[in-house]
Amino acid sequence: MMPPSTTHLVVIPSYNPGRVVFDTVRAARAHWAPVWVVVDGSTDGTGEQLEALAAADDGLRVLRLARNSGKGAAVLHALDAAAAEGFTHVLTMDSDGQHPAHLIGEFMAASQARPEAMILGKPVFDASAPLLRVRGRKVSNAWADLETLWAGIGDSLYGFRVYPVAPLRAIMHGQRWMRRFDFDPEAVVRLAWRGVRPLNLTAPVKYLSAAEGGVSHFNYWRDNKLLTWMHTRLFLGFLLRLPVLAWRRLRG
């Protein structure tokens, strides 16, 4: 087994993911240590089973939230614990089997070479991807490009990423947003505003069918309403920052 990193940590937020979470966690552990799972108020029994796995694996830790608070809140809970233990970077990945655990090492190496940057997965979709979601994310990506003056964010929604802990914690503790489905796009926009440069690496996406254990909590109307409100406030923030962003852009 690889020695555990003291700077880079894998964080997996998890809410009622079903049995696929165990494959996700085992795959992540096969490629990195340590791995933390944040059980975000799950009621499907996976929290207890994950704790049993962690009891036999020093490289795995389970953090638990008493109630479902959202992906962003779960990540922030891990960020605070990680900062307290001296970790400087976290790689986030979903618990539902969509993200490529075999690329964890490559993304971590890129972060170690460029610790000032955020390492962003740029998704490569296969035939399993719902066409509506593939097309719909182009709208969010277009807004993120505008809100950052085309800072180079390859994909605003793909959650397989390595974040620097300190600036992300500062951003999240400075406001009450970014706690649910709006976490991923708002995180990259606000980090770009702070001058954290993106480095994009391609990564495949796999949407598991129900027969394969796939579970989705995406709600088209609720979550798109959340994204609309998010981009509204980001655009207003962009207007306030436009002189600084334009000056930075002109300077290269």
Strand share of the residues? 15-25%
Largest sheet: 7 strands, mixed
Count of helix runs? 8
SS content category: alpha/beta
Distance between the termini: 43 Å
Strand runs, count: 7
Query: What shape does the CA trace take?
Result: globular
Low-confidence stretches are none
Global Rg? 17 Å
Helix percentage range: 40-55%
Quick check: average pLDDT? 92
- Order of neighbouring strands in the sheet with most strands: 3-2-1-4-6-5-7
Q: Provide the succession of SSEs.
A: EHEHEHEHEHEHHEH
Quick structural overview:
The protein has 252 residues and is α/β, with parallel strands linked by helices. It has eight helices and seven strands; from the N terminus they run βαβαβαβαβαβααβα. The longest helix is centred in the C-terminal third of the chain and has 32 residues, at 220-251.
Describe the 3D structure:
With 252 residues, the chain is α/β, with parallel strands linked by helices. The chain is 46% helix and 16% strand. It contains eight helices and seven strands. A seven-stranded mixed beta sheet has the order 3-2-1-4-6-5-7, sandwiched between helices. Helix 3 packs across helix 6 (165-173), helix 5 (131-147) packs parallel to helix 7 and helix 5 packs parallel to helix 8.
